[in-house]
Amino acid sequence: MKAAIIMGSISDREIAEKAKKIFDKFNVETHMEVISAHRTPKRAFEFAESAEKDGIEVIIAIAGKAAHLGGVIAANTIVPVIGIPAKTSVMGGMDSLLSVVQMPKGIPVATVAIDGGENAALLAISMLSLKYDELKKKLVDYRKELQDQVVEMNKELEA
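^ that's the sequence the OP posted. Answer follows.
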């Protein structure tokens, strides 16, 4: 099982690292690369067109401002694409969010919260778990850990 995390700029690396940390926890092989939809469009097309052949089963695309990376990739592959809108200095990431979420009919990009690296990876893992039973078990265990954390929080409140 293999996922790709692509960033429109190296400034998106912190978000990518959060996603990679989740993938590492679940033992999902990860390819990371900076690909700009606007500055390296040929590379974006090449990456998208070869993703499935290269064994990539889900793609996370992180981009800010115009945030076209996820859409460009999704338009050129059938591999599922999850977009992460990156926070910006201009509009706090709302510009990115609106760009990622407003895909034209027929070319979907799943979208998570602004800077939502962890949830993007967890959504990707959920998709992959439909094919990989061992991943499904790990995801169930992870969600149980989350539940246990909430139980502990309530014990702290009671104390």
